Amino acid sequence: MSNEQSGAPSALHPYRSHTCGVLRAGDAGQAVRLSGWIHRKRDHGQLLFVDLRDNFGITQCVIDISSPLFEALEAARVESVITVTGPVVKRAPETVNPQVPTGEIEVRVEALEILSPAELLPLQVNSDEDAGEEVRLRYRYLDLRREKMHEKILLRSQVITSIRRRMVEQGFTEFQTPILTASSPEGARDYLVPSRIHPGKFYALPQAPQMFKQLIMIAGFDRYFQIAPCFRDEDGRADRSPGEFYQLDFEMSFVTQDDVFAAIEPVMAGVFSEFAKDRTVSKPPFARIPYAEAMLKYGSDKPDLRNPIEIADVTEAFRGSGFAIFAKAVEKGAVVRAIPAPGAGARPRSFFDKMNDWARAEGAAGLGYIVFAEGGAKGPIAKNLDEARVTRIKTEAGLKDGDAVFFACDKAGGAARLAGAARVKLGQDLALLEPNCFKFCWIVDYPMFELDEQTGKIEFSHNPFSMPQGGMAALENQDPLEVKAFQYDIVCNGIELSSGAIRNHLPEVMYKAFAIAGYTPEEVDSRFSGLISALKFGAPPHGGSAPGIDRIVMMLADEPNIREIVAFPMNQKAEDLMMLAPAPVPAERLKELSLKLDLPPE
């Protein structure tokens, strides 16, 4: 349907002279043309008000019942796309809307064209009403018209633009790496792509550009980056999309670990500061916490430094003590971790009972505790410890009267997991987290190897291509479980944003590291042929990292679900409800690819 009033200014652009977010009181009297979606309509009898929306904002338009266009505009459904033409008019003082930038004016409709009528909507665009995830994903293009969603997707674009600019300012050059490549040793499942011209062979979508970015360094380029798509066939969760995600992938030549930190910290701090609004951001240099210290103090290698609680080792206070459960466990190699609960001494008994119930739900036997009061320590554990041991625990855990402390007793790994989870829970339950801030840190000095408790075999703990601290001498002369690597993670508010490393650029050191993990030279040559061959032709010392774009945007948007900051995400079952993917493939296409299906029974 098209309906134009005669006499409309002919010099105007056919769709718009202005966007819906720019008109102000100073534009009064000007003839304008706007195009957009009907966001909301209000019929006041003699007057019809229409909020017209585009990417840039909302402008109120008004039409009088005497206009021959009144019925057409009144009949147009919400979300129909229209063009209106007319003069800008100042609103009466009592009708000014200070909530929107265009709230001082309105456009009097003198010409109207219905560009695209809308059917009845499956979800409301002009409302924050939750239509449910299935409906939102099936009609994602409508969901993205909603103001909050629109702003989050624009924020994502702005963050990426800011990152690109800051990386270029740091001397990095943007490269693109292949999407069709070979299967990766990253650890997750690959997405495989069958080759038509090589029957029975498959490409893989890259889990990360790890090999290629190292090859770019070996090729003689110095500082590489890209906003890299990565593909992993793994289950979705709140902070991880099934299928694909994006990362700021970067690599540098002739650098130490300190050089990598110095290059990326201004980028991360700058981007977060730019979009932090009223939140504070850690200033470089960020805190550096050795892995072993992080596991002791925070029970995690992803510590949330907004939480002031620090776990303490109180094993010796229980060794040979009257608290037999812990004392016997310590003699068998267990450790005891103390998790302070500042100010919890005044909490009712039910608080401590609930913590015990929570610990049992986590698979532990429970959480013992002591309450410190002016009259002395209280609780079942305190009754079985002499005063000197109680005082030692109080001192080592940094506690005072009015505080409480919980205990985790287990092998080191199990005690760290329970204590770390209890620290997080207590920080939340006691409202201890510092508000409105982003606190960054580096976790450094990761162990190069770890012991698989089930098989008893030594395997890589983090990244097999990292340079061991001490190089070949460390691999030849140290207990493998004592060797540390130049590996590091960047963490913000308890969320891991990136893993990285100084790479192993020496073939002989790589062969030795893989031999310790049970690989023969032939297996290394076969599985990593591109990289190991390149290293034999002169490779510079190099290193890098890859902060996750999705998680950065999630944090800046204060959004716990990754699907809220991705334009077209899949659901948790890795299904695209809008495009109906994955989908069956016709038999002739499978034949062309030399494939036959062997489906599991229904």
How would you describe this protein?
With 602 residues, the protein is an alpha+beta fold. The chain contains 18 helices and 26 strands. The strands form 6 sheets. The chain has an 8-stranded mixed β-sheet with strand order 8-11-12-26-25-24-21-14, sandwiched between helices. Helix 4 (147-169) packs antiparallel against helix 6 and helix 15 packs across helix 16 (529-535). The two termini are 50 Å apart. Residues 1-7 have low confidence and may be disordered.
Q: What is the total tally of β strands?
A: 26
Q: For the residues shown, what is the average pLDDT? A: 95
Counting DSSP H or I runs of 4 or more residues, the number of helices is 18
Characterize the main sheet: 8 strands, mixed
Q: What is the multimeric organization of the chains shown?
A: single chain
Q: What would you say about this model in short?
A:
The protein has 602 residues and is α+β, with helices and mostly antiparallel strands. It is globular and about 95 Å long.
Structure keywords:
single chain, 602 residues, alpha+beta, five-stranded mixed beta barrel, 26 strands, disordered N terminus
